[in-house]
Amino acid sequence: MDPILWIIDFHDYAVKHYSDRRTDNYFLMSSYWNVLAIVIAYLYFVKSLGPKLMENRKPLNLKSILIAYNLMQVVCCTCLFIVGTIYIMPYINIFCTPFDFSQSFHSNVTSKLMHYFFILKLVDLLDTIFFVLKKNNRQITTL
């Protein structure tokens, strides 16, 4: 148990001393426990609860929900790409770009775009949940 406590203490120290303070008020960024809880709940649903709930039920018809979900994903990813291309690409090079902790417009846009990308990755978890609800278990892999 001691190594686990050391890892938690080290992580808390790193977050306290090296994290970007501008992101403290961003959704789900005040603590890593929020994201950890989401991932644990997701894994529990996908691996255990979801298949048990759907065991004796017909697959759900999610066609209209999936169309809306996929359209939302395409629009959001396209917006992130366009804004990122306009506001971030001119300021970076392919080798190494140090992170800018200043309050400049460019730095704030970069920070917000990275946060939106993070939120989209959490929303991507819905893909697997939809597979469970549609009983497409062959499409669910560990990866």
UniProtKB/TrEMBL annotation:
Topological type in the membrane: Multi-pass membrane protein
Record-listed E.C. numbers: 2.3.1.199
Keywords recorded for this protein, A-Z: Fatty acid biosynthesis, Fatty acid metabolism, Lipid biosynthesis, Lipid metabolism, Membrane, Transferase, Transmembrane, Transmembrane helix
Cellular location(s): Membrane
InterPro entries: ELO_fam
Gene Ontology molecular function terms on file: fatty acid elongase activity
Name assigned to this protein: Elongation of very long chain fatty acids protein
Species this protein is from: Oryctes borbonicus
Taxonomic lineage of the native organism: Eukaryota, Metazoa, Ecdysozoa, Arthropoda, Hexapoda
